[in-house]
Design goal:
InterPro entries: Nucleotide-diphossugar_trans (IPR029044), SAM-dependent_MTases_sf (IPR029063), TPR-like_helical_dom_sf (IPR011990). The chain has about 525 residues and is an alpha/beta fold. Helices cover about 40% and strands about 20% of the residues. An 8-stranded mixed beta sheet has the order 10-9-8-11-14-13-17-12, sandwiched between helices. The N and C termini lie far apart (about 90 Å).
Length: about 525
């Protein structure tokens, strides 16, 4: 067919627009141009690149106005074509299946000799095809290519990409280019974007850790300290770093809108984005890890997040702050979530850690209003109702807190351990002892391997003066020896502080005349 399959085209566009800059010859040869698909895909993006087309079927020249799409159009059979010059990149898009295997190999080797790179796009399934519009050259002569056969047949293939029924293969001419050049051109371009306010304490550490990024976009959302001056100073000291700073004014304020603006300022040429805070920083070698793990088709990476508390305690968990530049949008005014337009495919990066070291309270002034706004927009998001219940509880709005946490508990995918823990805390403050203990027991039931919440039960019973029950609970807690440094971690439940609590509880049990 004169029209090529769309499968693999986005991958080809991304690669070729970068690969051409590694070529000594700024030219492209499109073999079997058909309707001019590759000209339409690439010519506007590569000003100054010379495009030549070979199309054996003369009627296509006029039908698809090839003279307007290419600098030069040749009406030749590629099997007898003798290149008179060298090309940077040659396309064999839906071409080699129209000839025998032996002819395909001869054509490829001839074109590779006259090019720095050859891009093959070919069906890799059984795909018969007859003549089209009277064109006998549209017949598939060899209609059963497979990926394995392509790899075994054509030499010097340095990159491959499979998408649906199509395989894309890039060969390199070892006289002029190398596989390493292909790999370099295929590496992802990664941008970092962030909002900042009064972050003078962490800004230089942040910038030093991300300076390897291909682009850094920082948006000032109201800094009144020296953060902006320090950013500008860093930019002057590191002129090779692609750092851009903007002032962002947004009313009414929403975190999702602010992040979406920052994301929109990232160049469309970037493949990946990392959304950070200025109290965060990347570990050395982060870019090499991302490059090594990168593969077409994934939409983001899951990675480790380590939060360093003011007391130097380190909490660990998982996060997804690395995502494709295209197709993502932030949602919700606060506790915003990143959503992909299609099915998200997340790859784990077990060895990559992003560090966060908080140095100021980042809670927005209108936090309660933003949460109330969020639950109106997404009433089925349990986490937003949970956070709203926490805010109401801190403000001692008990009725509102109970309503919010009950709503969270009714929603799918809610975390029952977290829900029952907050229900316990609300009932404890309301001095509803039996209900509080019932909810705490339920929280323990849903997170049975954790010492912290059994320890919480022991201390609560101690405060109630129920010393024997408290001692039984502290002995149960002591049996759990695995420390997990996450959001549920409580240093009071470990080490000397735990021993002191145990001693205090046991002494009160003895005072009541019980033998331990």
């Amino acid at each position: 067919m004169p029209f090529s399959s769309t499968q693999g085209k986005a991958w080809i566009e991304r690669l070729v627009t970068r690969l051409i800059h590694h070529c000594k010859e700024n030219s492209i040869l499109d073999v079997g141009a058909g309707a001019g698909t590759y000209s339409e895909l690439l010519r506007s993006k590569l000003p100054g690149t010379h495009f030549t087309a070979i199309e054996i079927w003369q009627p296509y020249h006029e039908m698809y106005k090839l003279q307007q799409k290419y600098d030069l159009v040749l009406s030749e059979d590629v099997r007898t074509f003798e290149p008179a010059k060298r090309y940077g990149i040659t396309f064999c898009g839906d071409v080699l299946e129209h000839m025998t295997k032996e002819e395909a190999l001869q054509v490829y080797e001839k074109l590779l000799t006259a090019s720095e790179f050859v891009v093959i796009s070919i069906p890799i399934v059984h795909y018969p095809q007859e003549a089209y519009l009277g064109n006998p050259y549209e017949i598939h002569v060899k209609d059963d290519w497979t990926h394995e056969e392509v790899m075994a047949t054509f030499p010097h293939l340095g990159l491959t990409h499979r998408e649906g029924i199509m395989g894309v293969y890039v060969g390199y001419n070892p006289q002029f280019q190398s596989k390493a050049t292909l790999s370099k051109a295929n590496q992802p371009l990664t941008a970092v974007y962030a909002l900042y306010q009064n972050d003078q304490q962490g800004v230089r550490r942040f910038l030093q850790s991300v300076k390897e990024a291909d682009q850094i976009v920082l948006c000032d959302i109201g800094a009144t300290d020296q953060t902006t001056a320090l950013i500008d100073e860093f930019a002057r000291e590191h002129p090779a770093v692609h750092l851009q700073r903007y002032e962002l004014c947004l009313s009414p304020w929403r975190f999702d809108d602010a992040k979406n603006i920052a994301l929109s300022l990232v160049s469309p040429a970037m493949d990946l984005c990392i959304c950070l805070q200025l109290d965060e920083y990347m570990e050395p070698g982060w870019k090499e890890q991302i490059n090594a793990a990168w593969e077409s088709g994934i939409t983001g990476f899951a990675h480790r997040l380590k939060i360093i508390q003011p007391d130097a305690t380190e909490l660990e968990g998982w996060a997804q702050q690395i995502h494709l530049r295209k197709g993502h949008l932030w949602k919700l005014p606060v506790h915003e979530v990143l959503e992909y337009q299609d099915l998200a495919i997340i790859k784990e990066l077990n060895q990559l850690t992003i560090f966060r070291q908080p140095y100021r309270d980042t809670t927005p002034e209108n936090y309660e209003k933003l949460l109330e706004w969020s639950v109106k927009e997404r009433p089925n998001n349990w986490k937003t109702w949970y956070h709203l219940a926490q805010v109401y509880a801190r403000q001692r709005k008990w009725t509102e807190a109970q309503t919010a946490i009950d709503k969270a508990a009714s929603l799918p995918e809610m975390n029952p351990a977290a829900i029952y823990r907050l229900k316990y805390e609300i009932c404890r403050e309301l001095q509803q002892t039996d209900q509080a203990l019932a909810y705490l027991n339920l929280a323990i039931l849903h997170l049975p391997a954790r010492r912290e919440w059994i320890f919480e039960k022991a201390t609560y019973l101690f405060q109630l003066g129920r010393f024997r029950e408290a001692f039984s609970a502290i002995l149960e807690a002591e049996q759990h020896t695995a420390v997990k440094m996450d959001a549920f971690y409580n240093p009071e439940a470990w080490g000397d502080k735990f021993a002191q609590w145990k001693q205090q509880i046991s002494e009160n049990v003895k005072k009541e005349g019980f033998t331990l």
